[in-house]
Amino acid sequence: xxxxxxxxxxxxxxxxxxxxxxxxxxxxxxxxxxxxxxxxxxxxxxxxxxxxxxxxxxxxxxxxxxxxxxxxxxxxxxxxxxxxxxxxxxxxxxxxxxxxxxxxxxxxxxxxxxxxxxxxxxxxxxxxxxxxxxxxxxxxxxxxxxxxxxxxxxxxxxxxxxxxxxxxxxxxxxxxxxxxxxxxxxxxxxxxxxxxxxxxxxxxxxxxxxxxxxxxxxxxxxxxxx
Length: 226
What we know:
Layout: H1 5-32, H2 43-53, E1 60-64, E2 71-73, E3 78-82, H3 83-86, H4 91-109, H5 112-140, H6 144-181, H7 187-224
Parallel strand pairs: 1-3
Antiparallel strand pairs: 2-3
Helix pairs in contact: 1-7, 2-4, 4-6, 4-7, 5-6, 6-7
């Protein structure tokens, strides 16, 4: 009943795109993880340097296990860098470390899109977990209010993904800018870092398209069962 043409038309192509984007970021990171920067500094060094440059003294840098598990935790005020970034001197590692530090700068400066994203996050978290079950139950029991509520909740997921795009793009722009202005990377090395961050950005674009595809499928199911 629920595996319909809407899935094939709206969701499956988006999932294929997301898989391609993920493969692209992995291959690009792996390529430039083999290119070391001329100064021999590590991802952790760069993160700490940028924090000092912006006068951010309440954020620490830690190592976290895994591959491409790098993130900034605003609650703990910790930049967590993965094994392949923290101690690495590769161009890829420096790009990723600078990007995550960009998020710390955003929080420090009260960057509006990240404040909006944090505001939407609680509803989006709920929507990602229960929106589909609510819509399906609403269709089964012909309860349109439940269907509409599920769609509204999932719309918050889409909104969260859309707001995430400028947040991620801005963090990458900040990263490239500081790596260039502080002469941390040469022009050739900077090109590699840009390619890594551009590939990573495509995963967020793909995630947004997947969310939009799922929302269109929910709307299609709701119309079909009116």
